Amino acid sequence: AFGDFLTKRMKKSMEKNIKKSTLTDENIQETLREIRLALLEADVNVEVVKELISKIKEKTVGEYIQEGVTSHQQMLKIVHEELIDILGTEKAPLNLSKKPSVVMMVGLQGSGKTTSSSKLAHYLAKKEAKKPLLVGLDIYRPGAIDQLVELGNKNNIPVFEQGKQSPLKTAKQALEFAEKNGHDVVILDTAGRLQIDKDLMNELNDLRKITSPNETLLVVDGMIGQEIINVTNEFNNQLKLTGVIVTKLDGDARGGATLSIRYMTKLPIKFIGEGEGVSALAPFYPKRMADRILGMGDIETLFEKVVDNIDERSMQKTMKRMFMGQFDLEDLRNQLVQVSKMGNIGGIMKMMPNAKISDNQISDAQRKLVVFSILMDSMTLKERREPKLLKSLTRKNRIISGSGRTEKELNELINSFEKGKKQVLEMAKMMKSGRMPGMPG
Ligand code: GDP
């Protein structure tokens, strides 16, 4: 829901800071910082965040808090408006004024170009009563044309293809075919490469000259995050795009990078892909995206869980020891106990923003959590406090047989611990040099 996460963050800092009836430079400062962090966590581009914050500030300072609303509600409304503003306010419809109109789809391999081409054809047929023709021009990726034909057949959209014949020739024939058979929209599924290369751009430019498309749409994978901006700019420099389709927004992608496209490239997002199925393509609505970005997934639930379950004193003790550069297996064991108190580790890992964690990684982490705990239970406190004692073979063998685990697992634990300890020492150094705020000093 809109603003779930941000709302709570804002509410708290505003209740603390705003006691007067006017929003001022000072009393909104902390709230602005919260908003800034939340946006960065959502993968919004730094420049866009700066712009947003300065606009929000401009609109907020000096405002009287209106009757019947709380200060944070009023501010949230402004944030929402500014997000929508930066996303482009209006829905950007396709220009399909020619007969037949040509929509050229371009993008990197794997971005979802072929899938989006058939989704778009389906959308235009169903929602706009068009008679689209799909054209298979990707003669390089093996199976690309077959894939298009299959998708077309499945959804009753005719597909024009000439196998491996030159894409330029095929495109020309496709336009003739479309005119003769009364197709009003021709969708060109062009070739993609793994990277932007000159040959590809030359071919696409030639295609553009021959077919003069009404729309040249870049298909980008929403999962690539900030990289979207570079890819879009490069394609746009070469091909003069008219818009962007962002795919795979059904996955973990939070949409923050999507938010940045309009501001950073000046191109409208025309559609978004939200699944593999043929109907999983929707026109882009800035308001919906703003809601989604402010929603911030389940991070708030995560915070609640952490606060509920972590034994603060034991945490503080561990933190203090870490700060002193001390970290042993006993500390690790205490941490693992805290983590398992929080319940299912997979659920916790999945709630992290921006985390792309596979089920394999989760079950691996879950397994390690259990195995490591068992192994450490079989150690004496002295061994946990002085892990170097574990170099002794007799001790090792005793722990292995006592725990019923393997030598490999014990070594895995020791290695993970050594690695973790190094990181802790790094952190301790950073804390001491004052580069990490808010730590005990
Ligand atoms: P192309 O090389 O650009 O033509 O890429 P494809 O159209 O073959 O898509 C690559 C993969 O991404 C396929 O497995 C698609 O099913 C998948 N895909 C495309 N769009 C979406 C989307 O919006 N959501 C999800 N989850 N998968 C998608």
From TrEMBL:
The lineage of its organism: Bacteria, Bacillati, Mycoplasmatota, Mollicutes, Entomoplasmatales. GTP binds at residues 107-114, 189-193, 247-250. SUPFAM superfamilies: P-loop containing nucleoside triphosphate hydrolases, Signal peptide-binding domain. GO terms for cellular component: signal recognition particle. It comes from Mesoplasma florum (strain ATCC 33453 / NBRC 100688 / NCTC 11704 / L1) (Acholeplasma florum). Composed of three domains: the N-terminal N domain, which is responsible for interactions with the ribosome, the central G domain, which binds GTP, and the C-terminal M domain, which binds the RNA and the signal sequence of the RNC. GO terms for molecular function: 7S RNA binding; GTP binding; GTPase activity. Part of the signal recognition particle protein translocation system, which is composed of SRP and FtsY. This is Signal recognition particle protein. Keywords: Cytoplasm, GTP-binding, Hydrolase, Nucleotide-binding, Ribonucleoprotein, RNA-binding, Signal recognition particle. It catalyses: GTP + H2O = GDP + phosphate + H(+). Residues 268-281 form the SRP54-type proteins GTP-binding domain.
